């Protein structure tokens, strides 16, 4: 806190910033490079193996498979349903019914009830 | 009947221990000092023999092994607190395998595995984690719906303070007395936590005493209940408890945490964790964490705690006249606590209108040996009137007894640490 | 252990005892106080909200709901059944049938069996 | 609406904190120095009173307790990150129970239970274990099928480096600035890990800031998205992602681990564990271990991490002008990060053919507040075109943002440790 | 066929290691000493480059990374011990990411996360916890019903003692030789535990050797079995095992614990935990604890143990001529152990009446690579007579082999610690 | 490593080897002894108890029960099926369908999905 702006070695700050940001990009660009290459390599491998085994390499084997838009939408919908916050609004529901289940500061017996009773809800 | 046999066996055994050991057990080293065997092989066999348990066994070890086996027997045959007595019993066996020092075997040897696992006991880390799980499995509804029954959980702490005075009278040092007194709280983790802070050398004795008597609650309490209540009192039927809303159940751990810890901050590790666990259970949005806390986490800690507490009863450390005294005080503390709860319930009845009168038997549940003391009350209630179900009413003093003993332990720590 | 009764500072002992026991009571009495008050506060809040929303506050909304005695009894019965010790008496049942399931001191394969086989019992 | 109220309440509260505490909160010790009460009982009561929270409470404690309760309220009422805010909120309560030192209560007192549990935070042990579980629950398919979207996860790290410069400008020491900057990564474990290595005294403030803003992502991001994108851009539909083979999914963690760690070895504890967890998940032969890592293990660590990070906000340590500045920087960092992602997406579009153009809104998901920022994008997408589901596309920048911030944190550690 | 390829690849790789590394791998530091770059940016890039793995990589690192990838490949492709080889393989990768010291990255650097997690290996804490879980998942019925087959588990410990003599002959120091010998026990946790006590610097090599050969049991054992038994012997059918009562199954761990530990107290951490786990499983009243011990607890420990044991193979420490020798000794020990079991079974047959004769192949299961060596026996049995199921008979020597190696390890510790 | 063969105290080595190997045998022989004895003891106990309870001790009560060979075979077969390595061969199956389930580096919400969604196969 006793550092003042004019004391700070700003060139160092900028170096860290620029080098750091660049490296993050480099790392992910390298990953991109590898993963753009991979399907081709794996496919090549597959083709070769199929050839060896005497099977006919179909023309469309090399094409990438895409997930249809409707499937996409259906999934997204299902997910958004799950992701939705479902608030249990306050309701004076009788909750005393499981009063003594599961409790045991020192007693070990009640631990076992969890195994016997059906799971909570 | 079976239960009386059990009690007498326990007491007989304890008496035998004191007689046989005479307060200090000496090692029966059967190994001669010099062996002039010329052959290297005989020498090797001799070296091996010196390290065996057969060569180093003491009568103390054998006594403790019998005690350990007896604990395991009680757990399996009579289902007395099996989740605690099986690990503790096995721990007693492991702690009393005779060994030569220097091989990192014993629980008190630095660098041994048992010693590392014992760290969580010695530093009071395991008990709060147990309380976290307990909080996550406890339903405080009965207590919220009928708060005045909490007083019974407070009254039963007479066991704690009575034992404190008793321990001082029996000549214990004041910190030791404070640690021993918490046996009267009938809460294993609370007793172990307090001992670890006030008198670490007594952890084993205090824990074993506490768990033994808690396992024997169904044997100890009924006669006291019958002695201290009239037939008419035992027949009292109580108003059914009020339903509790979700908001109340969420507010309970928050208010409980702030209120009790502002009064007794030294109880923070215990009560903080208890109410934290309960909040996770009741808030409805962290069920996943509560589930882990009340299953796998508490299981792992129970295994480690039980095993190492058992192993800490290594005969050379455990079989002392102190341990005997602690067992005597423990029995007294359970009796006092039960009586305290019963008596206070009767006093409360003096001030209550007829339709609100409480069945004084539920006072016995204030000792908080949850849920066994509540079950004892239910049992006694049904004996007197087969339609009088007291279990739910007894749960309120029962769980408040847990809070009460933690506050009491906090007070002891405040005054003595 | 070398402390004798006459050396002990008994006034301190009694102070700890009395103050301690009182404080335990105080703590729980405060909790009682709060929790006797709470249903009233929550109810008040509920009434106000209902009023705001234009709904009619029914006469019995303020009454506390009690759990009926029979329900109480039924629950207690169910509980006592669960709480009962159920001892498996010794019976020369053939138990060798799962001899090699689940075992593996060093082998990792068998760990996975637990996921495949139905849970124990 | 409700959400705006929330934001304003948070900001108002923070302002109040700074005004009330005035930068340094002093203990309001109400206890007089000498009490000439003759009676021992009064003395005892006095001793008790001295140790209570009521006697030692400071305005700072009260402020923090309100903050803790507010966190818990947000979690329960609005479901904002409940698994994190409930433990952290309760931790704040526990950390601000007023106490007298010397009883092993406080998280900063050696020998206290909280202090032992805090060890895992202080030494950076918990965050990698959280990452292990995260790896075991994350599906990287979206990223593998469309690798170029990873660039958006890199671009959003502008938040990190922008905050670094900002923190220096606001007068923080360079190591502190490095630790604070990681708030811009929008990853709790990464931020805590970096702080533990660079500026352990700021762990509490940094963690609280990071988690607060992450909880508020659904409030912070939408206006920025709308400000920085045109209606036409928001309507862009993207090609459905390619299906991913099992081999690719197994190779991903292995290649990712080697590549990123060769570039930034200091990120090893975080990225090593993340990819290890993912390998266990995808390899198909260790499902049992992956299941444990993503359920019980991560739950236990989440409980301990949340509770102790919360407790580390003990008012006497936390309520400083530094904390206020960190909160301001945190808000800025989230805005910069979001803008960085959006901007880069727009730049990318300049170089892409029409059928390959990306919807720039998914750039906002690069901040990696998974999965909330992706949900925000999905939400905004549907608002503009109810048939445009962007969730899956947004997951790629979202998870690559996690890798990006870990690499960025590794860079900070390399330069500053 | 596939399996032979695997074996040859392993051996070839190991040979390559020794050739390439020449006993001591030197760092190929590509960084020049002085860089006279005037620009701060270039300096910054240079600093960054100095810390990358690319700049610090050694041929040793690369070799070990290939080994790690190969382990993971074996686990996924051939399902060889995946729960162990995936964590160990990933650990090898993490341990061989090249780094500059001083950033708390390496497993041998104080303060690093890996170093903290390695503590449980170094102090021998993880192996007993693994044994706890193993006890809780093992059914000892086959052994109880046919106790004399236990002798085969004892006989196979020839592998341990033969390796001990061999290690001494190859010039190892006596404590090192003791640690190495336990590879012959074919029990990972036992080998790691013994190494941690006798020769901590060899933990990595010993563990890797033990797990490698255990994974290769289906490749190593069949030729030895065929070599040492006649066709006629391989056709012997055995009497079905007797049924076992619940009481016997409860008494087994108790008697086993007391008996074996009185004979060899130094085996307490291993055998105590093994029998404790088994008691929890069989006693019928602690199923909850046993379930946790054999699932989540053992999973967590397996993850941590595997990862850190793998990481302990940091090239600078691991790639020595010692490691090569240990691998050679390991191969020998598995062969000796198998032969020992087979031979003793043939000797036993000399003293048994016709209807009681045992199929000598089950002697091979005495090495205790459970359950793989038992499966090998079953497989070989079916090859000779498709109706001859030996699996259950082979389980008895198989599990007694575990007890046998733990006793043998205890003896080594008694004599050498 | 600086120890040479002629410096090593070989008599000690052989002592450890012989004593060690013998002790392993002793330990397991003792266990064998106990477990050969046990069924007889338990049986004796059972007979005595049955007598006390006035029940007729059947002649074959003392005989050990054996598991029939066919059962044995069936069990072994079932086990070998379980033990078989079941490799999932590479198959270009669409796996993107659960893209966003379970993920959350810092978000706690998604943790809860595991409780809602059915367990992963
Ligand atoms: Na109590
Ligand atoms: Na990020
Ligand atoms: Na073995």
Quick recap of the structure?
The complex is a heterohexamer, with three copies of chain A (121 residues) and three copies of chain B (417 residues). Chain A is mostly helical and 121 residues long.
Folded structure, characterized:
The complex is a heterohexamer, with three copies of chain A (121 residues) and three copies of chain B (417 residues). Chain A is mainly α and 121 residues long. Chain A has helices at residues 10-52, 69-83, 113-116. Chain B has 22 helices and no strands. Classes of the chains: A mainly alpha (121), B mainly alpha (417). At the A-D interface, helix 1 and helix 2 of A face helix 9, helix 10, helix 16 and helix 22 of D. Bound molecules: sodium ion (NA) (3 copies). One sodium ion (NA) is lined by residues 185-187, 367-368, 401-402, 404-405 of chain D.
Report the biggest beta sheet of chain B as strand number plus sense, adding barrel if it closes: none
| Largest sheet report of chain A | none
Oligomeric state, counting identical vs distinct chains = heterohexamer
Greatest contact pair?
Answer: A-D, 47 and 57 residues
| Average pLDDT rating of chain B | 87
Strand-helix topology:
The complex is a heterohexamer, with three copies of chain A (121 residues) and three copies of chain B (417 residues).
Chain A: H1 10-52, H2 69-83, H3 113-116
Chain B: H1 2-21, H2 40-51, H3 53-56, H4 59-78, H5 82-95, H6 113-122, H7 126-137, H8 141-145, H9 150-155, H10 158-169, H11 174-181, H12 188-198, H13 203-215, H14 217-228, H15 231-234, H16 246-263, H17 268-282, H18 287-311, H19 315-318, H20 321-351, H21 372-384, H22 391-416
The complex binds sodium ion (NA) (3 copies).
Characteristics of this structure?
heterohexamer; A: 121 residues; mainly alpha; 3 helices; rod-shaped; B: 417 residues; 2 domains; 22 helices; 71% helix; globular; binds sodium ion
């Amino acid at each position: 806190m006793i550092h003042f702006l004019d004391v700070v070695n700003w060139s160092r700050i900028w170096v860290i910033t620029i080098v750091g940001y660049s490296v993050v990009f480099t790392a992910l660009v390298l990953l991109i490079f590898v993963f753009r290459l991979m399907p081709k390599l794996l496919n090549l491998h597959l083709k070769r193996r199929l050839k060896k085994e005497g099977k006919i390499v179909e023309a469309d084997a090399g094409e990438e498979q895409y997930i249809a838009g409707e499937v996409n939408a259906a999934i997204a919908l299902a997910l958004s349903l799950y992701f939705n916050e479902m608030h249990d609004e306050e309701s004076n529901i009788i909750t005393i019914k499981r009063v003594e289940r599961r409790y045991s500061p020192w007693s070990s017996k009640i631990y076992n009830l969890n195994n016997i009773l059906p799971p909570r809800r | 009947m079976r239960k009386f046999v059990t009690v007498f066996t326990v007491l007989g055994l304890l008496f035998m221990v004191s007689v046989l050991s005479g307060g200090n057990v000496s090692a029966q080293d059967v190994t001669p000092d010099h062996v002039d065997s010329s052959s290297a092989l005989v020498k090797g066999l001799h070296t091996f023999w010196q390290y065996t348990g057969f060569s180093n066994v003491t009568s103390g070890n054998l006594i403790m092994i019998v005690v350990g086996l007896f604990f395991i027997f009680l757990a399996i045959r009579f289902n007395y607190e099996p989740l605690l007595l099986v690990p503790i019993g096995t721990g007693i066996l492991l702690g009393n395998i005779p060994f030569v020092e220097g091989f990192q075997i014993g629980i008190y040897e630095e660098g041994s595995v048992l010693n590392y696992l014992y760290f969580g006991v010695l530093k009071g880390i395991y008990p709060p984690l147990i309380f976290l799980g307990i909080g996550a499995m406890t339903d405080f509804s009965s207590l919220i719906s009928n708060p005045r029954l909490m007083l019974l959980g407070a009254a039963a702490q007479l066991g704690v303070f009575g034992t404190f005075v008793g321990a001082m009278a029996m000549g214990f040092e004041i910190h030791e007395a404070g640690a021993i007194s918490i046996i009267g709280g009938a809460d294993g983790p609370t007793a172990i936590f307090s001992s670890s802070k006030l008198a670490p050398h007594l952890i084993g004795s205090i824990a074993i005493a506490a768990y033994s008597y808690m396992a024997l609650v169904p044997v100890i309490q009924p006669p006291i209940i019958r002695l201290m209540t009239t037939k008419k009192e035992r027949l009292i039927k109580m108003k059914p408890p009020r339903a509790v809303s979700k908001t109340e159940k969420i507010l309970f751990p928050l208010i409980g945490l702030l209120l009790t810890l502002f009064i007794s901050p030294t109880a923070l590790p215990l009560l903080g964790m208890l109410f934290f666990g309960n909040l996770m259970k009741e808030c409805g949005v962290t069920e996943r964490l509560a589930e882990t806390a009340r299953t796998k986490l508490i299981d792992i800690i129970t295994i480690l705690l039980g095993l190492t507490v058992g192993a800490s009863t290594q005969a050379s450390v455990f079989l002392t006249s102190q341990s005997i005294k602690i067992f005597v005080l423990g029995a007294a503390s359970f009796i006092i606590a039960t009586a305290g709860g019963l008596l206070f319930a009767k006093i409360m009845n003096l001030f209550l209108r007829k339709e609100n009168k409480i069945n004084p038997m539920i006072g016995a549940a204030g000792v908080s040996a949850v849920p066994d003391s509540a079950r004892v009350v239910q049992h006694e209630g049904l004996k007197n009137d087969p339609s009088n179900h007291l279990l739910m009413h007894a749960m309120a003093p029962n769980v408040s007894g847990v809070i009460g003993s933690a506050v009491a332990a906090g007070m002891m720590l405040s005054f003595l640490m």
